[in-house]
Amino acid sequence: MRTLIRNIGAVASGDVDAPVADADSIVIADGRIEAVGRGLDPGDVDQVIDARGTTAMPGLIDSHAHPVFGDFTPRQQTQSFIESGLHGGVTTVISAGEVHLPGRPKDVVGLKALAIVAAKAWGSLRPAGVKVHGGAPILELGLEEHDFAEMAAGGVQLVGEIGLGSVKTGEQAAPMVAWAKQHGMTVTFHTGGPSIAGSNPIAADAVLEARPHIVGHINGGTTPMSDRDIERVIGESDMAIEIVHCGNGRAALHALRTTAGATGGLGRVILGNDAPSGTGVVPLGILRTMAHLASLGGVAPELAVAMATGNTARVHKLDVGVLATGGAADIVLCDAPVGSSAGSALEALAVGDLPGISMVLIDGAVQIGRSRNTPPAARAAEVVGGDPAAGGH
After folding, report:
1. What is the pTM of this model?
2. Which of 49, 97, 101, 365 fits a 20 to 30 Å CA distance from 323?
3. How far apart are CA 202 and CA 204, in angstroms?
4. Is the distance from CB of 155 to CB of 123 less than 8 angstroms?
5. At 256, is the pLDDT very low, low, confident or very high (cuts 50, 70, 90)?
6. Domain 60-283: what homologous superfamily?
7. Edge-to-edge strand list for the sheet holding 2-6
């Protein structure tokens, strides 16, 4: 299958170092990006999409979700929440732990079994086409190095946010984080106040001692650390700094400004929803966080796009998140919403409006047309040649 997307108004690449590509066309072949450039005319294609001047950006990545099994959340008794997120532009979801599973086992044998079966289940299921990376064990006391080796052999690539289980100090976590890294897992540490019964408040000392890959919801989930602890974690490490929608908005802006002046700069910032949670199911949470940071945090909107895409993909070593040759063709076509003072999707983010999504592709296949959740896009991309099938979602 070969597809040409033409008449793109702007391409937000997802690359924090080159966030806007000089391009008005994208060619897709067999689910991957073949070329990004101007006036591309690849000749024989199976499908042509007219972007009609709208903005192309990578499919958004939710770096912090709590799925369980299938497109259902027991925390909120809600069906099809992942599909709803697709209508918010999210094409990849990363689990921070299947913590809401009723009766979640907390013994070593049980937590390993849950992590392995969840990783395998999500590896075989794409709700509405969305790529879900699951199987993120919540660490409990008693785990040893061979347990991480066993989980890795079973396909586990993540560690759920540390602090939701009995492991809650830097001293307890540090050897386990080292074992997880040794076996190729990406590790997130909960920060701030407790989010559910049985979880623990986590401050800077614990995170700095353990040195995970990701400082989970630095702006709280929902209660953040102190400003001083936020500054310490950012200034005394090179860890990825995760800002979430279901957190403290003021703390998000403080973390953003602090990271901008720290080693690694805004390339360290990644975005998550932290939903489903007590805050609810938030299909537009990533878009809302992007708009919050761009309109109130003074960040260029194309950099906000990179935080929600390429930055996260780099931390998790994924082949998504950047519109560049060879990458997976997960693409969102969007525009300023009807009635906005903005003239494009990027301008909409800059003034705090949510872009209207008119088409989402995953691996080059159209999954949805106009979003049922965003405000309507002022201009809408459409299939004008070839197979117009839109995936039925």
Report:
1. 0.97
2. 97
3. 7
4. yes
5. very high
6. Metal-dependent hydrolases (3.20.20.140)
7. 32-37, 25-29, 2-6, 47-50, 382-386
